[in-house]
Amino acid sequence: MKHGSLFSGIGGFDLAAEWMDWENVFHCEWNPFGQRVLKHYWPNAESFDDITKTDFTKYNGTIDILSGGFPCQPYSTAGKRLGKADERHLWPHMLRAIEEVAPRFVVGENVRGLTNWNGGMVFDEVCSDLENLGYQVAPFIIPASATNAPHKRERIWFVAYSDSANSETWTQRKILGQSNRKKARRFGNVECEKKWENFPTQSPICGRNNGIPAGLDGITFSKWRNESIKAYGNAVCPQVVFEIFKSIEKFEQINERT
User: Fold this and answer.
1) What is the rounded CA–CA span in Å between residue 242 and residue 148?
2) Domain 2-257, CATH
3) Which residues are catalytic?
4) If we measure between CA atoms, which residue out of 86, 92, 141 comes closest to residue 116?
5) Within 10 Å of residue 128's Cβ, how many Cβ atoms?
6) If 0-12 CB within 10 Å is exposed, 13-18 middle and 19+ buried, where does residue 162 land?
7) In angstroms, rounded to a whole number, what is the distance separating the alpha carbons of residues 190 and 177?
8) Residue 51: how many CB atoms within 10 A of its CB?
9) In the chain, where are the structural domains located?
10) How far from 178 is each of 182, 183, 190, CA to CA, in Å?
């Protein structure tokens, strides 16, 4: 499987793809610190910086899975929740990249706050935009604690599939779970274990319990030290991504047998 990532950060999606033994073909990250981390661990992948200025059509039809945790600040309850008025509302650029690349699978991620911002308007738009490109969409709320992290960290995950020859298969099997978006805008939920009711159990400074390997914790140069702390905070939990990727591969294997 060939994987490309957008809003790549320090490579949470890319790390999960590596665990799957997939090929990381390209990544796109504007932050200089994130770029350094990505280029260090995946030097053979093509590196893009500003998604708003990048044309991805060279990869049209060659990528199996395109992932991206588009910026969450416009919808996070920890911020001002300016939504579409925030210059960091970059879903339209991720959508353009999806149209240019035309991958078979898309995995998008954002904070839970996106699901109820302005009555769920952006949540509905993300699903509708993907459907208009021919994708079957299955959104899920999955917390990091679902993969045994000792903190909740709930996120909305959009898992989408498009294959003109097998479009009904995704709807019928839905390996990843319950209802799709068209059923009263519901989404699947993966519950955390009761033993993780009190969060967090460790300080969020640097790596701690977010699932990213702790190699960045040893940085002492102050500028990059601060950047490493921010990067950890923005990173997706790769263990959750890994479970999603495993489900996609299982779906592919079933398709091959039928």
Assistant:
1) 13
2) 3.40.50.150
3) 72
4) 141
5) 13
6) buried
7) 9
8) 20
9) 2-257
10) 12, 10, 10
Show the beta-strand stretches assigned E in the chain.
2-6, 23-28, 46-48, 65-68, 105-111, 136-143, 154-161, 188-189
The amino acid occupying position 17 is A
Among candidate residues 147, 218, 211, the one with its CA nearest the CA of residue 11: 211
- Per residue of the chain (258 residues), what is the pLDDT tens digit? 999 999 999 899 999 999 999 999 999 999 998 999 999 999 999 999 999 999 999 999 999 999 999 876 656 555 555 555 556 578 999 999 999 999 999 999 988 888 876 667 788 889 999 999 999 999 999 988 888 877 777 889 999 999 753 444 444 444 444 434 443 334 455 554 444 444 444 444 455 555 666 665 455 556 666 777 666 767 788 999 999 999 999 999 888 876
Q: Give the pTM.
A: 0.78
Whole-number Å distance between alpha carbons of 141 and 120: 14
